[in-house]
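name: query_chain
kind: protein
chains: 1
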Amino acid sequence: MKLRELINSGICSVEGEGDAGAAGGGGAGGTGDAGQGSASWYATLDAETQGVLQTKGWDKLTPDQAVAQAVAAHREAEKFLGAPKDQLVRRPDPADPASVAAFWQQFGKPSSKDQYDFSGVKFTDGTALDDGFVTFMRDTADRLNLPKEAATEVAAGIIKFMEQADAAEAGERAAAVATQTAELKKEWGNNFEAHKFVAKQGALKVGISEGEFDAMFETPGGARMLEVFRKIGDMSGEGRFVAGSGSANTGMLTRQQALAEKSALMADDAWVTKYNKGDVQAVGKMTALNTIIVADVTEADFFS
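structure:
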């Protein structure tokens, strides 16, 4: 029975009984004992409602007292709803896809995953997102029932994290390369350029291209490979082109030594003749000398 019906039923019942008691010479003493020993005012209510009245102790009260307490309890309960009735939502039935979809759309999820728009999310350099990543984000956002704006923010956050991670990794790689190169230069000393030439010839002999060889100087672990290729070059005889001349010079040529040796060779008419005729040994020697000589030449060297 509704609250209004309860009020009307109780009041009518009390008024009727009160009048009858008055007409009969006082009866049960007015409404003072109306709630005691008589269930007439709530007897017509359903069993569940009567149970609530008894649990609350309202069955011991007069109808107007019971109604007053019920209203007070209801108003107190309203404080815990947190929002008007028209702003409340119910969890959908998981077995009903339509109700689930309608529920999440109330919070901003688009009706179709294709409506998730990531065109405004780009890398720092302006590059657009990869199609595969966009597809992944749409599928993920749809599966997680994300609002459209939230999905865009998540994608932007992922891209920012990726770029920061790449920058950190690049910094670590650069630091590792610098350390390894410094160690290699310390190990090779003044023979660095000569050893580098021999290493390059060794790399070429085993199928490494010039571009791949040059990339080793920017790759962690590349210094170790340079030493391996230098040994290959030595074993294949490439080292003889950059070895010092005479018994007093048993190491590899420095740049200054290469300049001096080239000058001496160019003063030897017989050697120049062999070189001009394409002699393999002479061409190899000149190539090695020139490599060592120009290895560290910069624009400043021409204007110093």
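note: The chain has a mean pLDDT of 77.
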